Amino acid sequence: MDMIFLIDLSVIKPDFGLIAWTTAIFVIFWWLMAKFAFRPIMEALKKRESDIQNSLDDAKRTREEMAQLKAKNEELLAQAREERALILKEAKDAGTSIVEEAKEKAKIEAQKIVANAKEQIENQKMAAMIELKNQVGTMALDIAEKVLQKELKGDTAQESFVSGLVKDIKLN
Amino acid sequence: MRRYTLTFIFSLFLTAFLFAQNHGEHSSNGSHSEGSTEEHHTEVLCGEEVDHDFDPGKTAFHHVSDQNIYTIGPVSIPLPCILYVPGEGLHTFSSGKFEIGHHGNGHKAVDRFVLVEGTVKRISDPSFPTGEVEISGFIPKVETGQDGKEKDVVYVCHNEKLYLAESKSTADGGMFGGGITSFYDFSITKNVVSMLIVFALLAWMFISIANAYKKREGQAPKGLQSFIEPIFLFIQDEVAKPFIGARWEQYLPFLQTLFFFILGLNLFGQIPFLGGSNVTGNLAFTGVLALFTFFVVNFSGNKHYWEHIFWMPGAPAWVKLILTPVEFLGIFIKPFTLMLRLAANITAGHIVIVVFVSLIFVFGKGQVAPSLGTGIGSTLLTMFMMSIELLVAFIQAFVFTLLTASYIGAATEEAHH
To answer: Quick check: A16 and B196 CB within 8 A?
Structure first.
């Protein structure tokens, strides 16, 4: 009763009970694992994979953007420098031209003033001359009057004088 | 070094001891005491004296079979029996009721059922009493059936009379000596218990891993999670994606289920001193898995797939006449090979290990010196074989999954002419 006496390879004879139990256990296992383990794990792994990819892409993009930004900054800086130089030059030029202009203007003004002054001096001089001439004329007349008054105290003198004058006029 | 030597010697003795408990000494039980460890065992059965040698083949076959008890070393754990007899109905009771003796042979018959070699058999003779009945032993015989084939049968001794014990119904259609008998066994057997244990372990493991992904979102994997992730990703990236193509996501849970269930059971069966259940080596188990593959593949089959089976485009008509039957048979042969490959590989592994351990009893012949000598050699061989079996456990789970993926891939592939 304690021995082994059967040459019976039972594993090649599929047993209905084991078939039924295997089917039941496998179906439940499949459903349970798919719902609560394999799908969630798959989704988590997929999400992580895409997260990692996104992070890498982001990093790359950021790096590129940084590089671009840097290049742009440098360009801007260079541009600014150039502009500054230009502005400085322009300012210098403008300064010079303003000074020149001012100088010119001042010169012209000065010349004008000088010309005006000259004119005025001339005018004054003329006025003075006329005045002087008038004065001298008056004085001469006065003197002449006085002289004449003295000399022409007789009629004869007067007549000779007038005739002398008339002679002069005729000659003129 | 010392530690390793100790471990080695310890494992050597443990192997030899546990094996001896089971198979070497056929020591006494009850009335016919025979404490001999001689080459020949002489036992009194039903009043007859029976001589028999230690047979490693029989031992191995016994080891790989499914049983109604769970044996760990010298301890036999009874399991629930659910037996269906057409016309009589269900019988449910614990296999402990058989009063399990050595080798899983029961001392009692329960409702005409007996326990032989850990497997339930039924006495269909109506003259045998129902209820719990004391039996005095089993007599193995080789009979020639009506078809001329020799068949191993077992007789039960009761009251000096012999009754034929019928095996349970099997689905092999008589091809391997089975077929439909007077009863069906839907018991929670050793294999079912192993499946439930592996189910529970894997479910706990994977659900906690899935929760870890939820809880530790955006963080690096840790612990169990980082242990399983490469394996999971291997199936996903090296099996599902390249073999199935665009629709891999739909089939990934099925592939992962197949892979981890097979792997878990392969490994569970290899744990020493834990019953060594041979679930993935059983055709019933692999057959069910192959059937699932068959359904998944053929329900996914598109127009292109069926066209290539029934009317291969681009082939001349006479070639089509040859190709169509071949392709049609291929639908069934593919899952059939899946079933055979896995079962054969795992069963072979279990048998080889049992046979290597059996060498101790074949050459040792019950004496101490040769037993110890062969013991060292066979332990080394067994350790070597077990490491190979560890590899086989992974490879066979992988191959089953890979081929399933490639069949699904072929069935869902879009036309590319």
So the answer is: no
Which residue is listed with tokens 């066209």? Answer: B307
Instruction: Output the pLDDT for position B13.
Output: 52
User: Is the Cβ pair B213, A16 closer than 8 Å?
Assistant: no
Residue B280 contacts residue B343 (beta carbons within 8 Å): yes
Maximum alpha-carbon separation in chain A:
214
C-alpha separations of B387 from B73, B349, B394, B412 in Å: 22, 11, 11, 38
- Using one digit for the tens of pLDDT, what is the confidence trace for A34-91? 999 999 999 999 999 999 999 999 999 999 999 999 999 999 999 999 999 999 999 9
Segment B216-229, tens digit of pLDDT:
887 888 889 999 99
Task: Read off the pTM.
Answer: 0.77
Strands of the sheet containing B137-144, edge to edge, are B132-134, B108-110, B113-116, B119-123, B161-166, B150-158, B137-144
Phi/psi zone of residue B171: left (φ > 0), alpha (ψ -120 to 50 degrees), beta?
Answer: alpha
A3 touches chain B (CB under 8 A): yes
Nearest to B125 by CA among B152, B159, B96: B159
Contact: B210, A40; criterion CB under 8 Å: yes
